[in-house]
Backbone:
């Protein structure tokens, strides 16, 4: 059965390492007949949450930016892939801003399958776990969220260094398993 897959790429660099892994995941998911859309968060205008909680009264954020569109796609998806480079052992600002802005309708992001992709210069999976825990903190707040897989792109600092690594094959194969 075909699934609707949404890939959220937090990479601030064009063709950055985490973005390259998103593309591999996408190829695998498409090869299995799924409908896949990749959103480059850096290309969207997503403001920071101001904590005004106007959304708690009307279920809608008062900010007029691209987040309403992205959030609707998250709600409509069956599978959500969240990808980030690791900066100081946590996710990058683009991804964290997006997560914070789901507050208006996060309860509607229910019963989804999640995959996490993280890339880092460090060659130690254990040190990358804090970043994955950040994703898990988000999905712990969502009803019926199921973590299906994690891809650790280790030892990749410069753009493109992830190519030819074990993580490339893992991303493709994990995409195929959707």
Residues:
């Amino acid at each position: 059965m075909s699934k609707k897959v949404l890939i959220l790429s937090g990479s601030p660099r064009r063709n950055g390492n985490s973005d390259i892994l998103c593309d591999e995941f996408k190829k695998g998911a498409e090869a299995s007949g799924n409908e896949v859309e990749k959103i480059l968060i850096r290309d969207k205008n997503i403001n920071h949450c101001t904590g005004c909680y106007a959304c708690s009264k009307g279920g809608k954020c008062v900010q007029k930016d691209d987040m309403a569109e992205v959030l609707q796609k998250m709600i409509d998806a069956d599978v959500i892939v969240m990808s980030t480079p690791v900066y100081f052992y946590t996710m990058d600002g683009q991804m964290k801003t997006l997560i914070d802005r789901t507050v208006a309708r996060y309860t509607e992001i229910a019963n989804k399958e999640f995959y996490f992709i993280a890339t880092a210069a460090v060659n130690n999976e254990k040190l990358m776990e804090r970043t994955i825990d950040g994703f898990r903190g988000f999905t712990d707040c969502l009803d019926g969220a199921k973590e299906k897989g994690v891809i650790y792109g280790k030892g990749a600092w410069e753009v493109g260094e992830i190519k030819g690594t074990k993580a490339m094959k893992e991303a493709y194969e994990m995409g195929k398993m959707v």
Remarks:
- The longest helix spans residues 17-31.
- The two ends are 10 Å apart (CA to CA).
- The helical segments are 17-31, 55-58, 67-76, 93-100, 125-139, 166-177.
